[in-house]
TrEMBL record, chain A:
NCBIfam families: phoU_full. This is Phosphate-specific transport system accessory protein PhoU. Homodimer. Keywords: Cytoplasm, Phosphate transport, Transport.
From TrEMBL, chain B:
One of its GO terms (cellular component) is plasma membrane. It comes from the Bacteria. Residues 12-253 form the ABC transporter domain. It is found in: Cell inner membrane. The lineage of its organism: Bacteria, Bacillati, Bacillota, Bacilli, Bacillales. Pfam families: ABC_tran. InterPro entries: AAA+_ATPase, ABC_transporter-like_ATP-bd, ABC_transporter-like_CS, P-loop_NTPase, PstB-like. It comes from Melghirimyces thermohalophilus. Keywords: ATP-binding, Cell membrane, Membrane, Nucleotide-binding, Phosphate transport, Translocase, Transport. This is Phosphate transport system ATP-binding protein. The keyword Membrane applies. The keyword Nucleotide-binding applies. Its main location: membrane.
Amino acid sequence: MIRQFDTSLKEVKHLLLDMGEKLEIAINKAVKSLSRLDVDMARDVLNNDQAIDEMENRIDDKVATLIATQQPVAKDLRKLISALKIASDMERMADLATNIAEVTLHFVENDLKLFKELKDISEMARITQNMVHDGINSYIDGNVDLSKKMAETDDQVDKLYERIVKELLEDMIQEQKFTEVSLRLCFVARYLERIADHATNVAESVVYIETGKREDLN
Amino acid sequence: MAEQSVLTKPAIQVEDLDLYYGDHQALYNIALEVEENSVTALIGPSGCGKSTFLRTLNRMNDLIPGVKIDGKIRLYGEDIYDRKVDVEMLRKQVGMVFQTPNPFPKSIYDNIAYGPRIHGIRSKKQLDEIVERSLRQAALWDEVKDRLKDRATGLSGGQQQRLCIARALAVEPEIVLMDEPTSALDPISTSKIEELLGELKEKYTIVIVTHNMQQAARVSDKTAFFLNGELVEYGETDTLFSNPSNSKTEDYITGRFG
């Protein structure tokens, strides 16, 4: 028997999946726009943020309706509560991606040049993007192992963050003219580090759905 | 919770309970304890044995021919199926409220005074006190105090059910059994009775059969899930409805069967 509730739950899943795809693209484009100082790409990220916000609202509305009309319990309820949390985490991640795109725009508008290749920041972006990807997939498949493995990579992100900040600090000390760019690149590293933290929250939500238990994964 | 369990004592203890209707076994090896001053909900699909189980607690099944019961049910330590037990006294101790309100075709006052009179109370003053106390406990007093001589059958469905609760309380039971007490009532009457349960458990121990899962979740401290005559899961209501340990319970409460 396929119940109305299961069909609606699938719709919530699809919305989260769509939202996750848009988010992955946003993170990817934001960091690319920065390393290439590509204004159009950065504007793209900013313009798409509204669509992600709207998706969060749609998920909220759908979940509210389901709770009001179906009175879900147990795992059904955990799925819905977690859908709200995951949507909120993704919305925050998308905001952080726009913050990165804003740095691109600021550099271009103020004619600030990158004084070195953004190798570590790109690597950080790659890992966080994968974390988001695995987070969404582990939610869709109810895969606790995948979500836990994903959360473990947060350590790599934290290490990269520390290294990036340290190096940029040295750059600032060596060359005063690098100060503003270095400072803003520190912010970018911080934004990526925050994105990875939100991805870890998604992993915790997946564990909660599947086991009913709350685990601090990082 | 550990501190609480030291303070509370079991009102009902059931061990290895089997029940047969002739050749048909309706209950299998039921074991559970009901704490004093708590609300326990029995849930499960039709025919799962929950009402049968409820009726074993005041020996209502004795009235059905061909019933055979094995195992033990203790009320405050006393085996209620012991030969020496006076069944009438047992039913005074363990009151019951049924699905459809069933007031006697008498006045409101006489409905409540009926039980106490049977148990030998004659004094008008004493009966007046019992009627008022019982109606107050059932949250009906304010609505009927000016028309106690009116016929009870003229009350609304929700009022009639609270009258039946008052009637059960009039003989000062220790345990009140309720078999789907709100299934014939509108939502407002239902919520009045649900609210009442929270107050009644201060003084009584309540066991309620309900088909309304949300009701079980709202009103009870513990929930027992029955399926095909077996007790599948019994535990804290909060846990049972948020994270049940048995997958059959999960399937039932989420509406995947039953």
